[in-house]
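Reopening: Tyrosine-type recombinase/integrase still failing for me.
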Amino acid sequence: MGKGIKRRKDGRYEAKYSVETDTGTKRRSIYGKSREEVAVKLAKAIEDAKDQTPKVKPTELTIKEFLEGLHDQTVRHAVKRRTYESYRCIVGRHIVPAIGNVKLRELSTRNVQDFYGALLNRGLSAKTVTNVHTLLRRALKQAIDWELITRNACEGVSLPRRESPEVNPLNRQQAKALLEASKSDRLHALYVLAISTGMRQGELLGLYWSDIDLDNRMVRVRRALVTGYGQTYESTKTKRSRRSIALTTIATEALIAHKDRMSDEGHSVEGDSPVFVNKVGRHLHPKNFMDRSFKPNLRKARIPDTTFHAATRHTAASLMLTKGVHPKVVQEMLGHATITITLDTYSHLLDGMGGTGATAMDDALS
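Support: Ran it again with your exact input. Result attached.
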């Protein structure tokens, strides 16, 4: 609990939430002397909202009214900001235009199957359709819990087969070329840290100087910068994502130089000050970084257009695995929730390592 709770200038804590009334959606506020007090009050308010009678009779409630009304209120306060924005995007872009006017109690498995087929025919990927399915299935399960419907129309639907996305990391020469190209960039340390640790872009932009331990050559990953309706910091995705990573020599040296440069520019390099900021000392906007730094450096290094994720995170994993680093170590560095994710994502890199295993067994048994 506690998401969206802010401290006011008068010392009290405040949380805002939405309720459905006869005149439409209304925003209400809850106040308390502590964050914990407001969190308890907010939880009770959300529970009370669940018990409220819908503006329309349950038999007349449409998919649109349910997803954008009652269910939206629950999701808004139960998930992180980025997840909620993704929810709104899927509902508004894919579900409501297609089946929004269908009555909740009349939605059939055939309706859902045809809906998914239409999404695929529009050119949407199997992954996107699966994401739509996951959201809709959970929403309908909530409708069952609230006794609005008796069965989940998503059960029994056939989903498209998801192809594993092709991972195209930079090779060793390209990685070195990108680091060389970024040497004159004021954010050179970001590139070094990204390629040497495999940290996600949001995690890099979410670093505070208090997360950097140059004496012991460690970086602590605790939060990520997320964008959408503005920018904010959130705790990392999973428990595994919260991790400490040993710094390489080149990363340590780059961070020392970066710290000196930021200090010379007049920016704070202590405590909860962002490590990577723009020229006026504010946190970097990912799009601006991509347009003004990453893409120009790609061109300078003569590397074909690619994503930051592929050029850094995938490259870090590729370099480690091809050097014989154990997949479990790679998993922990990348912050994957399970080693299965690591193995599934980079299985093609492991395929060519079978000969190494055979040679090792020959040596062991000879």
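The chain has a mean pLDDT of 86. If you still see a failure, please send the error message rather than a screenshot.
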